[in-house]
């Protein structure tokens, strides 16, 4: 047994083998027409023996599709459900855990997935295959299709595949001498779609080496996605651009719009006490600070109120002097 594309079979502790190589199919046509279709199934087998008897025959199941049609969009079954009534050769054995298949449209994306848990396959003592999990997936969007596979604790021919030593690119091949080959993360592209087979066993035995098995195919976990062939899907509306104009104008940084209380307190204290310092300090420091804040917004000069106040004081002083002189003259 040998592997192509640098796929050594080694014994030892095996972790999860994530087949991350992803093929990307072309995007939908330039007009934006996105009418996706998809399907998925967990297992399919068509194996014949040399004497003409059936070695292992299983129709694709469980099978899901989009649009749903006769098949549902999400199916979950047990291995017992699948194997019930299955034709399998006496020297062959197949064990399956839970099987899942789904193909559905959500949020403008078509996603197809299939998985098989606790797989154990023995075929006429010439092929052994097992894994904790075998999963295939693909996603179709208006931009195109991409997909990949995940394998956990995979064994081929009874040998563990070291997840740390192997990065399985799409269409990685394990050759099985005299029997055929096992393709991992098989990806087949079309003009508008992609088919992903997590494991594809192709049997074509050489007579005299493995005389019991003659030909056949076994697919474990298939996901298929396409951008065409189904009902049209309207693209999601683009989010609206913010206007950039805040509902409340920001502060210009020149001070509060309402004059602080210092002007009133200062002016009142100065006026009530009759002291020049109190009145001037309160009026000038408190009142002018508040006024200057408003004046700065209009572009007016802060000296104008001061000049007006000075003129008023001169008028008051002149009137007082006039009254004083009249009283003196009358006396």
Explain how this protein is built.
This protein has 331 residues and is α+β, with helices and mostly antiparallel strands. It folds into two domains: 2-226, no CATH class; 261-330. It is built from four helices and 18 strands. The strands form two sheets. Strands 2, 3, 6, 8, 9, 10, 11, 12, 13 and 14 form a ten-stranded antiparallel beta sheet that branches. Helix 2 packs antiparallel against helix 3 (276-298). The radius of gyration is 43 Å and the shape is elongated. The protein starts with a strand and ends with a helix. 34% of the residues are buried. The model is unreliable at 2-16 and 255-307 (pLDDT under 50).
What's the rounded overall pLDDT mean?
Answer: 71
Structural class: alpha+beta
Question: Which of globular, elongated, flat, extended, rod-shaped describes the shape?
Answer: elongated
User: Uncertain spans, ≥5 residues at pLDDT below 50?
Assistant: 2-16, 255-307
Q: Bin the strand percentage.
A: 35-45%
What is the percent of helical residues?
Answer: 10-25%
> C-alpha Rg, in Å?
43 Å
Number of domains: 2
What's the N-to-C terminus distance?
A: 139 Å
| Helix and strand pattern | EEEEEEHEEEEEEEEEEEEHHH
Number of helices: 4
* Total number of strands: 18
Largest sheet: 10 strands, antiparallel
Helix and strand arrangement:
Elements: E1 2-3, E2 16-19, E3 24-25, E4 37-49, E5 54-66, E6 74-78, H1 79-83, E7 87-88, E8 93-95, E9 98-106, E10 109-123, E11 127-141, E12 144-152, E13 155-156, E14 159-160, E15 172-176, E16 180-189, E17 193-203, E18 213-226, H2 261-273, H3 276-298, H4 303-330
Antiparallel strand pairs: 1-15, 2-12, 3-12, 4-5, 4-18, 5-7, 6-9, 8-10, 9-10, 10-11, 11-12, 11-13, 13-14, 15-16, 16-17, 17-18
Helix pairs in contact: 2-3
């Amino acid at each position: 047994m040998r592997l192509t594309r640098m796929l050594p079979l080694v014994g030892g502790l095996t972790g999860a083998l994530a087949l991350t190589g992803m093929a990307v199919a072309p995007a939908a046509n330039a007009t934006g027409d996105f009418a996706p279709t998809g399907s998925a199934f967990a297992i399919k087998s068509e194996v014949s023996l040399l004497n003409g008897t059936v070695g292992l025959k299983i129709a694709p199941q469980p099978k899901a599709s989009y649009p749903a049609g006769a098949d549902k969009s999400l199916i979950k079954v047990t291995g017992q459900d699948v194997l019930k009534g299955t034709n399998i050769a006496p020297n062959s054995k197949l064990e399956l855990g839970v099987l899942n298949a789904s193909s559905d449209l959500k949020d403008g994306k078509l996603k197809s997935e299939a998985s098989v848990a606790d797989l154990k396959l023995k075929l006429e003592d010439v092929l052994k295959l097992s894994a904790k999990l075998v999963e295939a997936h693909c996603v179709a969007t208006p931009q195109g299709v991409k997909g990949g596979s995940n394998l956990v604790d995979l064994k081929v021919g009874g040998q563990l595949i070291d997840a740390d030593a192997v990065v399985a690119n799409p269409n990685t091949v394990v050759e099985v001498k005299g029997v055929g080959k096992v393709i991992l993360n098989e990806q087949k592209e079309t003009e508008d779609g992609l088919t992903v087979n997590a494991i594809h066993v192709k049997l074509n035995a050489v007579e005299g080496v493995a005389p019991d098995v003659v030909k056949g195919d076994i697919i474990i976990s298939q996901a298929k996605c396409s951008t065409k062939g189904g009902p049209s899907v309207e693209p999601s509306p683009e989010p609206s651009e913010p206007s950039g104009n805040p509902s409340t104008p920001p502060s210009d940084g020149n001070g509060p719009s309402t004059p602080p209380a210092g002007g009133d307190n200062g002016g009142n204290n100065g006026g009530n006490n009759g002291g020049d310092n109190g009145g001037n300090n309160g009026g000038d420091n408190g009142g002018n600070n508040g006024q200057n804040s408003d004046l700065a917004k209009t572009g007016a000069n802060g000296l104008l109120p001061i000049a007006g106040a000075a003129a008023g004081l001169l008028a008051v002083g002149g009137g007082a002097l006039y009254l004083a002189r009249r009283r003196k003259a009358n006396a």
